[in-house]
Amino acid sequence: MKKPVICIGAALVDELYSVSRPMLMATTNDAFVHRSAGGVARNIAHQLALLDVPVQLISVFGNDGEGDWLKTICGYVNIQLDAAITNQSLTGKYTGILNYDRSLFTALLTNTSLDSITPQHLQQHEALLSTAFSIVADANIHPDTVAWLAHFCFRKNIPFIIEPVSVPPAQKFAKMDLTGVYMITPNEDELPAMCSKGGTTIEENANELISRGVQKVWLHRGKEGSMLFTKDNQYSLPAPAVAEIKDVTGAGDGSLSGWLMAKYLGMDDEDSLKISHTLSAEILQVNGAIATHLNQQKLLAFVNKYYTVRNFL
Question: What is the mean pLDDT of each run of 10 residues along the chain (313 residues)?
Fold first, then answer.
């Protein structure tokens, strides 16, 4: 049996409201709404499943219609839920407000109940966790759970990746021992939030995280592309040009899915970044957080659409 990527964190109902003209404050704005399955961990799991990577999702679902809807979608794409939790809370919801230019104006996150994913719960599923090719946790889960996972992955030699999600959850890691963390994937706002030494440059902050135990810091810079830092190297890759952006939601989640697929296929860091940026660019051109038009073969073929590279097929 192939080793799964295990994604731990939020499964949410996403509601995105897009205004039809420049935002007016303290009054009513006409808007369009798009509803889809979301949550950082669930998005990553969904995209990986479409890319033919076996995946398990450990999340929390409410015992309600929306929770049933999310679980049904997971079943459609073969996301396994062997260690997921269903409780009596309402299913979590992400409500995003997008500007006229499709950039994020603000967002609200409600009822995630992710503190239910405790170290004790994960201990009950150590046999499953031990089978992982890699474990990805979004920063919405409790810091004690992240610390337990880092220790577990260090003992089991399993790559452990933390996706910071946003600035408030990223701040939880500012003083945490990060030994056992393979990679952290912040954007330019989240990176300094994860640091405690007051670094004034990207390099200083990335080096702080590496000094605290992280093997790789993958900095997402939006239109500027991304930078990958390790103890000995630094690599930058520009973002592909995208003619029309329909929705910014999920582009970062998608890039991490691309990275994990590339690593699952045994690719090096440079090629993994190119695949990641390609997937992110494709997600920007669709509504929702998932590039449902892509499978593994199509994604690999699309890399040459954005970069001058060798043929991946």
Answer: 93 91 93 90 96 97 96 97 95 91 87 91 98 97 96 98 94 94 97 91 96 97 93 93 73 89 96 95 81 92 83 61
Distance, in Å, from the CA atom of 150 to the CA atom of 70, rounded to the nearest integer, reads 28
DSSP code string of 8-36: ES--EEEEEEEESSS--TTS---EEEEEE
Classify domain 5-10+38-89+116-306 by CATH number: 3.40.1190.20
Domain boundaries, the chain: 5-10+38-89+116-306
Give the global pTM: 0.90
